[in-house]
Every structure is written in structure tokens, then in C-alpha cells.
Design a protein that fits this description.
Layout: H1 2-9, H2 16-47, H3 50-75, H4 80-103, H5 109-138, H6 143-172, H7 175-193, H8 208-220, H9 223-238, H10 246-253, H11 257-280, H12 286-309, H13 313-340, H14 347-360, H15 362-376, H16 378-397
Helix pairs in contact: 2-3, 2-5, 2-6, 2-7, 3-5, 3-8, 3-14, 3-15, 4-5, 4-7, 5-14, 6-11, 6-13, 9-13, 9-14, 9-15, 9-16, 10-11, 11-13, 12-13, 12-16, 15-16
């Protein structure tokens, strides 16, 4: 009875493989967010510098810019399932190594940055592959529901992980968060190993360079895809990197420490989960998708500007809630449109470009925001983040026949 109500409300849950995937990812991503909070706080504790926070974020995201387009080509040519198994296993092992480095107290900012780079290399292959694998679990008809539910899983973990990490870091330090992240990958591997999938059929094609060029040409000749992906790069570089400033905001502005940092990220995640569940529960027309894009960007901009102007910690939490609501509505809608507008033979390559714009633009934004915050403080810098979302909204609003 309960399952029937869930599957009628969220069509993607009709698929056994996706149900397993959602459970595994909820646990694994909670660990990921615990590690993310611990890493940010570790860097800030070691350096006391917003620039160091931005630099480590830059190094962590740089591999996505360098490798994700090629990773998309690889995803179109090999078994996505086996590639995801490999990346999740490598990420698990690396998280344990990171925990050992922190636990033995040999961590320095350069060492943390080096580990972040290695995790970024793994992520550059993992993210576009998992995104393009979604359609193999649920089919094209239920893909929008799956993307929105996947976003709700990601952001539910964003609620739970930072809240737990804030308490754990305050009580026991950063190392346990890295170890728990390593353990959490076992849930993702359990979900993958129990899936029932048809035999993979690798695609034939030209070499990697030719494949990458064909993917870029495919996007270039489709103005809607080009507009969606170009705007995503701008928003990712500025608005989506605002959370790199949260350790400084929590400590320097509000004096709330690691727990306050965790709660700021949790509020952002709560806003995202609320809108993700709404998006997953129904189908939207083209006009409504356009509305969702603009509403998401306006909401993100408004929330970030509220945080920038907040005289108190509770008001900053409200701003984070609104920013998270807008962020998810915009990014999930963009993902749905990109995937539904892309033909299956090009899906891996286009999602590789999507990953490059979504996470590959992030290192430059993180470095720029960290540098600016060092000079003028985190709250004035958040105005720049909000302005990025506003600019994207105004540009998309002028696009004819969009989407």
C-alpha cells in the first residue's frame, strides 16, 4: 500500500534498480557531505584564510574541468555500470586514506589540496557517468522524476551530513568524518551490485578526440542546449560556489564555529529537498520548465543577497533556505532539459559537457570568491554570488522560444 502511494507520486520509484540506487546514494552522499564539511573546516582551522578555502576548492574542482568532457566520451563507449563501480570503489579507498592523514595529524593545506585533486579526478569520471546512467535505470519517460528524486537524495544528504559533521568535528575532530565517508561508500556498492541490468553493449566509434569534437558540435548546433549549458557555467562559477564562504561566515561574522557552519549548509539543503520532492512528483510542460528555471535563479539570487545583508545568524539561515530552494529548482530543471533534449548516442558526451559547466567552472569561481572574501569579507562577496544568479535570470528571460 505504502509502496503503491509512493510509486504513484514518484514514478521513478516503480523501478527496482532506481530504488536500490536511491537508498545507497542517500547513505553514501551523507558521508560525502560529512567529509565536505570536515575538509572545509580543516582547511580553515589550519590556515584561517578564505583564500586557502577558495584555493583548495579550486584544486578539487579543476580535474572536472580537465577530464569530464573526455569522461563523457568514455561513458558513451564502455559499460557505465562497470565504470561507476570502479569510481565508487576508488573514492571509498581515497576517503580512508584521507582519514588516516588527518588522524595522524600530518595534514597540511597542500596535502589536503592534493587529496582534493585526486578526489576530483575520480569525480570527473563518476558524475557524468552516473548522470547518463540514470536513463538506463528508469527509461526516458520516468527520467525527469528520477533526476528530481536523485537531487532530493543529494540534498537530503546535504541536510543530514553537515548537521552530523558539525557536531562530530566539534567533539572528535575532522578525521572521523573522512572514515565514515569511506564506510558509507559500501552502501552505494551494495546498491550497484544488486541491480538487474541487461548486458552492456559498448558503442563503437572514433577515437576520443573525435568523439569529444562531435559532442561539442552536437551542442553548438542546438541553441537551446548551448544556452542551458552556457548559463550553467556562469551560475556555477559564482552563485553555486557561495558555500565556500560558509566556514568564514560562521566563524568570523557570527562566531558559531563548526556547528554553525554545519547548520548553514543544512539550511541550504532543507530548501533544496523541499523543491526537489515537488519537482519529482509531477510532469511539467515546456512553459512550466522555463518558469522553473527563472524562479530557481531568482530564488537563489534573493537568498544569497539575504545572507549577504543578514545582521543575525537566524536571518542568514533563512537566506540559505531560500537559496537552496532556488538552486535545486534551477539545476534540476536544467539537468532534465539537457537530458531530454539529447539523443541517446550523445548522452554521455553531452553530460560530460554538462559536468564541465556545472563543476568545471567551479574552481575559478571558488578561487575568485575566496580571494575577494579575503579582501572585503564574506558577506560583501556574497553579493557577487547573488549578482551572478540575477544576471543569468535576466539573460534567460530575454531568450526567445526558450526552452
Amino acid at each position: 500500500m505504502a509502496r503503491g502511494r509512493l510509486t504513484s507520486s514518484f514514478p521513478a520509484l516503480r523501478h527496482r534498480n532506481f530504488r536500490r540506487y536511491a537508498v545507497g546514494q542517500t547513505i553514501s552522499l551523507a558521508g560525502f557531505w560529512m567529509q565536505s564539511v570536515a575538509q572545509g573546516w580543516l582547511v580553515f582551522r589550519l590556515s584561517g584564510s578564505e583564500l586557502a578555502l577558495g584555493t583548495v576548492a579550486f584544486v578539487g574542482y579543476l580535474p572536472v574541468l580537465l577530464f569530464s568532457p573526455v569522461a563523457g566520451v568514455v561513458a558513451d563507449r564502455v559499460s557505465k555500470y562497470r565504470l561507476i563501480l570502479a569510481t565508487q570503489t576508488l573514492a571509498m579507498l581515497l576517503a580512508v586514506v584521507q582519514g588516516l592523514v588527518v588522524w595522524t595529524e600530518v595534514a597540511t593545506v597542500p596535502i589536503v589540496a592534493g587529496m582534493a585533486f585526486c578526489m576530483g579526478v575520480i569525480g570527473s569520471f563518476d558524475l557524468p557517468t552516473r548522470q547518463s546512467f540514470m536513463v538506463e535505470m528508469v527509461g526516458l519517460e520516468d527520467l525527469p522524476s528520477a533526476i528530481a528524486l536523485n537531487a532530493s537524495v543529494f540534498n537530503t544528504a546535504r541536510v543530514v551530513g553537515p548537521a552530523l559533521a558539525g557536531v562530530l568535528v566539534a567533539v572528535a575532530g575532522e578525521a572521523p568524518c573522512f572514515f565514515l565517508n569511506g564506510v558509507s561508500y559500501l552502501a552505494a556498492l551494495w546498491a550497484l551490485l544488486g541491480m538487474h541490468l541487461p548486458a552492456a553493449r559498448p558503442r563503437a566509434g572514433a577515437g576520443r578526440a573525435s568523439g569529444l569534437r562531435s559532442g561539442l558540435a552536437y551542442v553548438r548546433h542546438r541553441p537551446v542546449l548551448a544556452s542551458l549549458l552556457g548559463t550553467l557555467g556562469l551560475v556555477s562559477a559564482l552563485a553555486l560556489q557561495s558555500n565556500v564562504l560558509m566556514p568564514s561566515l560562521a566563524e568570523r561574522v557570527f562566531g558559531r564555529g563548526a556547528r554553525g557552519f554545519g547548520v548553514l549548509l543544512t539550511a541550504y539543503g532543507v530548501g533544496a529537498v523541499i523543491t526537489a520532492l515537488r519537482l519529482a512528483s509531477r510532469t511539467y510542460s515546456a512553459v512550466e520548465q522555463r518558469r522553473n528555471l527563472l524562479l530557481g535563479l531568482w530564488g537563489m539570487a534573493t537568498g544569497l543577497l539575504v545572507v549577504a545583508a543578514s545582521p543575525s545568524y537566524p536571518m542568514a539561515l533563512v537566506g540559505q533556505l531560500v537559496a537552496g530552494f532556488g538552486m535545486l529548482r534551477y539545476t534540476a530543471t536544467t539537468n532534465v532539459l539537457v537530458q531530454t533534449l539529447t539523443e541517446d548516442p550523445y548522452r554521455g558526451r553531452v553530460m560530460g559537457i554538462h559536468t564541465m559547466m556545472f563543476a568545471g567552472a567551479a574552481p575559478f569561481g571558488a578561487l575568485a570568491l575566496g580571494s575577494l572574501a579575503r579582501a572585503i569579507g564574506p558577506q560583501p562577496t556574497l553579493v557577487v554570488s547573488g549578482a551572478g544568479a540575477l544576471a543569468a535570470a535576466m539573460w534567460l528571460a530575454t531568450r526567445p522560444r526558450f526552452p
